[in-house]
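I am sending you the entry underneath: sequence plus fold tokens. Let me know what the token row says about the fold:
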Amino acid sequence: MTTRTSGPEPPDYGIDAPAVIRNLVIVGVIGVSTWSAVRLAVWSGRVVPTPILGFAGMAFGTGLLCIVMAFWILWESKIGKMRTRDRLLARVSWTGHERVLDVGCGRGLLLIGAAKRLKTGRAIGIDIWQAEDLTGNNANATLENARREGVADRVEVQTADMRQMPFTDSSFDLVLSRAAIHNIYTAEGRAAAIREIARVLKPGGQVVIEDIRHLRQYIRIFSENGCTNIQRGGSLFAYTFFTIVTFGSLRPSTLLVRKSA
């Protein structure tokens, strides 16, 4: 008799924005339930005033949209962001010797993806580990994912605020960040984070940022801090779709930035 052995444990990069998902589901259920209650009254022969019918229709549309958005975040958390990692890191011309910084690394999605492309280089991630941004968001989870992906010897994590990084000037060849900087709610705070990224980046070094809003501000601050080679990319469809359905709240895009040599 042969004993079946299980393969290596897969990494777990968590669920993004769990509180947002919860709120979307709550609003979705309320909206659909409101519409259902009104439709049931109509079907039972009751006279329902036209304004209430209109309100119920709007509630249904809003609720359905919220539920779709919640499922999209779940899909993105488990499947989409793995594809995003590969797409973002493919924009870098790797030598394998880079010193890499992941700003707001969370459970290590980009950090570990970068480490897998290194030979003698090192990938360092910083975060303040906010649980509302990512389920199970802590340094031990990041290190465990690095172990599962076989790159623990190339990864380091630190608890640090992106607005005041504990690194000397020109420390990194590459700085990465995904869906993190927008979590700073003040414009000055975000500006401080971008200035810090520019400060710790080596001349000729590259920055790859994907975020869901504030990209215009990032471009302006980078250009004021020695990073004038800036390209904006990402999916035009995704940008247009989310800009429309969220009334401009979400505008996903990617920045490729290079610091002047």
Summary: The chain has a mean pLDDT of 93. The chain has seven helices and seven strands. The chain has two domains: 18-81, 91-258. The radius of gyration is 22 Å.
